[in-house]
């Protein structure tokens, strides 16, 4: 009942549910998966841009993801819930701010790990968003999944653009931190960041 009332349903689109759907999930696995990705990418992005700008970008990415999902599913009566669009946007921002961060790219077939490749952000996140685009096109053609792939792509695009804007106006050092601290980031905000992350495909 809650999901049907507060989830975002393209066929009955409302601005309120476009926002509230970001804070609902379809189950514990959905929550845990999203929180894993948010922890993996969000801590470093927040450390770079500050908590207030991070919160704004996060919400804008969620809205952007919901809008692209709406455009590709205008007649869908299935409620869409989850923070995936917002978190995908954080990934897009991470790609711009930390393009050379170390990654373990783990490739799975179902639950079985096939191979792990040591790589960097550009290859790992680039592969992931490419996978989302392919799956999104397949889902449009044959409806093979209930996953909102276009919400992932829409959120990613907004986060990517936000990262470009931030990097354009705030010069960063090699660790992705502002060389000159902007007024909106407290002096005590900076923390050490982890250098290795694993991304599953």
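^ structure tokens above, recovered residues below v
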């Amino acid at each position: 009942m809650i999901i049907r009332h507060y989830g975002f349903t393209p066929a009955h689109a409302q601005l309120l549910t476009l926002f509230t759907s970001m804070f609902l999930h379809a189950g514990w696995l959905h929550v845990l998966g999203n929180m894993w990705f948010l922890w993996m990418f969000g801590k470093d992005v927040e450390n770079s841009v500050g908590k207030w700008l991070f919160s704004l970008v996060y919400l804008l990415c969620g809205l952007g993801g919901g809008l692209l999902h709406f455009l590709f599913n205008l007649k869908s009566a299935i409620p869409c819930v989850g923070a995936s669009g917002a978190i995908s946007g954080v990934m897009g921002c991470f790609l711009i701010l930390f393009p050379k961060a170390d990654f373990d790219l783990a490739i799975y077939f179902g639950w079985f790990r096939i191979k792990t490749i040591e790589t960097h952000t550009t290859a790992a996140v680039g592969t992931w968003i490419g996978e989302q685009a392919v799956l999104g096109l397949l889902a449009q053609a044959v409806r093979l999944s209930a996953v909102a792939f276009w919400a992932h792509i829409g959120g990613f695009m907004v986060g990517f653009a936000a990262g470009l804007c931030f990097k354009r106006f705030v010069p960063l050092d090699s660790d992705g931190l502002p060389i000159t601290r902007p007024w909106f980031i407290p002096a005590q905000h900076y923390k050490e960041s982890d250098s290795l992350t694993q991304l599953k495909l």
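Residues 62 and 86 are 4 Å apart (CA to CA).
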